[in-house]
């Protein structure tokens, strides 16, 4: 049948089973088409003789129904349905499609616009359009779709599975000869996968070979639609992948986020005000009995804080009004001054790191003191101090203006009025302190001090602060605690560097702790905090990961990236380039394990003469810490959910490494058969933690190959454990989400989902990470994930689930709201 012709085509109408099947012919209407259809019913379609048959008897109807079922193929059935959809007049389209298309701002959409709206690679859209339509000029390339064609495209991609499978097959069939060849399939996926940043190009041919094997194209040169459909329909996972070959009925309507780009500043301001009002309403609704129960310690501490401030305020008012008979402005000034004394003392106490470590270590204290909120509380007190400073200053300024002994300027800028304890210096000191406070506020620094009877309020907290600093200085420069040297550095991908540090002999820490480090050859006096990535069970090395985002971190990254081989050997620092050769990230870890026994002897300075230590030109590094974080609570919980965003997974590296070390420590290897068993009694008795769900949200896997190696080792260790203890449940479940590709369940993700499912079936591993756990494309649906934690087999109760998060603030806010809804305890580690 020639393309673009209007010859009759056959339509199959199915009625009630008691009625005969009727075959009739209709003329194809081309009034709704802007260009001829590329694909009509092929010569392989319903047998020609059937168009001449018209039966009215019931028995004849059954006969021809059975006959058609035996003679019509899957392709013929799909083609009949497809042709019917293409010939469907506009007024017959579903109402929701017609109403949606009425909102199109233009009469047509370019293929580039279609590609962006569907978040799909352009060549897939081009193939899809060429499958359904052909140009009026054979040499002309289709570049736009009009309104009717957009409607028809939406209708087709929301139709039956048979039609969508046929359209996908025709997209793979590049030369339209009704067959897919091995070269066509390979060519399609080569073009598709080369545009995915998350895919390792080195594995391209291996992946294509697996695809060819799945569709039998490793044994034959081509397959037709019948064989393709048979393979897909018999595999539920492939069928599920192909079911995503669809689009949302309103995909061609611009979203509200795009329309906001055209709003003026006033409109954006109004939108912001409305959004803030909605947030206020949500926050107001949070004050329920359940919310108060979950945040009881926070409410009690806040109440005590407010009560102390009110008590001090009442004391000043009563004393100044009844005893000294001061005027109203002096009373306000004294209120601000006394409350400043208290709050300036409190703001220091809130940042005493070693004191916070003691509170976190004690189970009773951390239950009654919300120690994880100390940074947020510190910020609140800082803002209170700024407000009190304004009150105190303005009240004194007004009072000076009322006095007649001297002029206002004399009171403010001289010592002549003799105001204050030390030679009338109080007003001038107040001006200086106001300047200092303004500088602190502008620079976002939150340690505030105030004058007046300052020494009475500051001496206690300041003494603790100085003692902590003295202790830190003594330990950081001690060979046994803080002064050490660098063993190796690995330049990871995406501007990340890992440092492997010789662990000082007396240095102890817990999983999730962090340290401040100083590299004298980078900056002599700068200390910067980083989470420890290695496990406490590793007594030889400490490992940290640094992302080059600031001046100091960039200097560290460049120093070891550009270090020459001679300098590396002279400083006894091994530098691995995993950014160029990813396998060196694994090589670094293996080298560290091999060096354990050798470096353990070198690490004991009692066995090394002082002259030898000085003569070694090692890369010095000074450690300050460790300091605790909320991650210390993990081993006291029953079911923890560890959520990391990007580089925020580093605290969990130490935790998972520690858990794996505990599993390995409980191994028992048979001397006769070398089989691996586990001392489960020791594991159960020494750990309350029963279940871990690890969720990692990141753009792609290439940034953290070092962390994937850890996950692979843990999966292997868990498989060994479950093999020897088949009645036990899984301890660790891994959920990976890569956001580089948006997963909207549309046509652009079908080829990817298809190949990932096939790769999983053949190799038993995920195509991106080589883990057994599946990689999810797109952002997590937190409500579904949290529901799974408390429903189904082996589910936990809400009271047993503790969620720990480290990552971006926006993500933390979302998770905090979901945890409040599900009544999970939520802990956040600040960057």
TrEMBL record:
Record Gene3D superfamilies: EF-hand, Nucleotide-binding domain of ferredoxin-NADP reductase (FNR) module, Translation factors
Keyword NADP in record: yes
SUPFAM superfamilies according to UniProt: EF-hand (SSF47473), Ferredoxin reductase-like, C-terminal NADP-linked domain (SSF52343), Riboflavin synthase domain-like (SSF63380)
Record's subcellular location: Membrane
Sequence segments annotated as region (Disordered): 591-613
Any one of the GO BP annotations: superoxide anion generation
Keywords: FAD, Flavoprotein, Membrane, NADP, Oxidoreductase, Transmembrane, Transmembrane helix
GO MF, one example: superoxide-generating NAD(P)H oxidase activity
Membrane topology listed for this record: Multi-pass membrane protein
PROSITE patterns: FAD_FR
One Pfam family matching this protein: FAD_binding_8
Transmembrane segments: 299-318, 338-359, 380-401, 421-445
Residues covered by the FAD-binding FR-type domain: 474-589
Domain of life: Eukaryota
Protein name per Swiss-Prot or TrEMBL: FAD-binding FR-type domain-containing protein
Organism field: Adineta steineri
Lineage: Eukaryota, Metazoa, Spiralia, Gnathifera, Rotifera
């Amino acid at each position: 049948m020639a393309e673009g012709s209007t010859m009759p085509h056959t339509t199959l109408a199915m009625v009630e089973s008691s009625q005969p099947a009727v075959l009739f012919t209709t003329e194809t209407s081309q009034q709704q088409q802007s260009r001829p259809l590329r694909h009509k019913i092929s010569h392989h379609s319903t047998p020609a003789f059937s168009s001449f048959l018209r039966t009215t008897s019931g028995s004849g109807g059954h006969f021809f129904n059975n006959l058609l079922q035996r003679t019509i193929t899957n392709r013929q059935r799909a083609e009949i349905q497809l042709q019917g959809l293409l010939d469907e007049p506009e007024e017959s389209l579903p109402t929701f499609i017609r109403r949606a298309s009425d909102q199109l701002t233009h009469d047509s959409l370019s293929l580039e616009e279609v590609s962006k709206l569907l978040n799909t690679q352009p060549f897939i859209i081009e193939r899809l359009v060429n499958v359904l339509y052909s140009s009026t000029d054979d040499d002309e390339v289709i570049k736009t779709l009009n309104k009717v064609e957009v409607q028809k495209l939406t209708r087709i991609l929301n139709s039956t599975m048979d039609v969508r499978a046929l359209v996908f097959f025709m997209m793979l069939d590049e030369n339209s000869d009704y067959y897919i060849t091995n070269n066509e399939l390979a060519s399609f996926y080569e073009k598709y996968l080369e545009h995915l940043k998350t895919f390792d190009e080195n594995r391209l041919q291996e992946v294509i070979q697996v695809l060819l094997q799945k569709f039998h194209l490793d044994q034959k040169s081509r397959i037709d639609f019948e064989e393709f459909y048979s393979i897909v329909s018999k595999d539920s996972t492939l069928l599920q992948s192909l079911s995503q070959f669809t689009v949302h009925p309103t995909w061609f309507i611009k979203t509200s986020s795009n329309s906001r780009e055209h709003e003026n500043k006033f409109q954006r301001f109004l939108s912001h005000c409305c959004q803030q009002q909605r947030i206020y309403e949500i926050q107001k609704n949070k004050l329920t009995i359940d919310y108060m129960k979950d945040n009881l310690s926070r409410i009690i501490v806040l109440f005590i804080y407010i009560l102390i401030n009110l008590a001090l305020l009442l004391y000043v008012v009563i004393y100044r009004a009844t005893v000294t008979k001061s005027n109203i402005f002096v009373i306000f000034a004294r209120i601000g001054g006394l409350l400043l004394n208290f709050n300036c003392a409190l703001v220091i106490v809130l940042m005493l790191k070693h004191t916070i470590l003691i509170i976190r270590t004690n189970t009773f204290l951390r239950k009654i003191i919300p120690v994880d909120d100390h940074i947020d509380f510190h910020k609140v007190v800082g803002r209170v101090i700024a407000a009190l400073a304004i009150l105190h200053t303005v009240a004194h300024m007004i009072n000076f203006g009322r006095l007649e002994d001297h002029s206002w300027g004399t009171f403010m800028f001289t010592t002549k009025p003799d105001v204050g304890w030390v030679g009338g210096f109080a007003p001038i000191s107040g001006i200086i302190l106001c300047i200092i406070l303004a500088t602190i506020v502008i620079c976002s620094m939150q340690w505030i001090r105030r004058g007046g009877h300052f020494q009475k309020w500051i001496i206690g907290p300041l003494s603790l602060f100085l003692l902590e600093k003295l202790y830190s200085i003594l330990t950081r420069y001690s060979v046994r605690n803080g002064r050490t040297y660098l063993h190796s550095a690995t330049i990871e991908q995406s501007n990340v560097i890992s440092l492997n540090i010789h662990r000082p002999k007396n240095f102890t820490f817990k999983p999730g702790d962090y340290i401040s480090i100083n590299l004298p050859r980078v900056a002599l006096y700068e200390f910067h905090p980083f989470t420890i990535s290695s496990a406490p069970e590793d007594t030889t090395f400490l490992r940290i990961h640094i992302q080059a985002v600031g001046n100091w971190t960039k200097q560290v990254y460049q120093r070891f990236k550009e270090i020459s081989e001679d300098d590396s050997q002279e400083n006894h620092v091994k530098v691995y380039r995993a950014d160029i050769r990813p396998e060196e990230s694994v090589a670094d870890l293996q080298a560290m394990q091999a060096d354990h026994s050798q470096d353990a002897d070198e690490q004991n300075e009692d066995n090394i003469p002082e002259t030898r230590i000085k003569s070694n030109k090692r890369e010095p590094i000074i450690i300050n810490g460790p300091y605790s974080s909320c991650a210390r609570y993990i081993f006291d919980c029953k079911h923890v959910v560890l959520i990391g965003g990007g580089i925020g997974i580093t605290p969990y590296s130490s935790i998972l490494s520690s858990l794996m070390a505990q599993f390995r420590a409980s191994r028992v290897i048979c001397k006769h058969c070398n089989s691996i068993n586990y001392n489960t009694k020791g594991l159960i008795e020494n750990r309350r933690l029963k279940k871990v769900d690890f969720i990692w949200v990141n753009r792609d896997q290439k940034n953290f190959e070092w962390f994937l190696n850890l996950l692979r080792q843990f999966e292997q260790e868990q498989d060994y454990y479950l093999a020897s203890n088949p009645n036990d449940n899984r301890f660790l479940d891994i959920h990976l989400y890569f956001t580089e590709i948006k997963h909207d369940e549309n046509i652009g993700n079908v080829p990817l989902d298809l190949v990932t499912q096939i790769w999983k079936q053949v190799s038993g591993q995920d195509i991106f990470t080589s883990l057994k756990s599946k990689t999810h494309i797109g952002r997590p649906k937190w409500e579904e994930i949290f529901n799974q934690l408390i429903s189904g087999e082996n589910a936990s109760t809400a009271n047993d689930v503790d969620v720990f998060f480290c990552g971006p603030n926006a993500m933390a806010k979302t998770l905090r709201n979901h945890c409040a809804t599900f009544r999970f305890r939520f802990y956040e580690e600040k960057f």
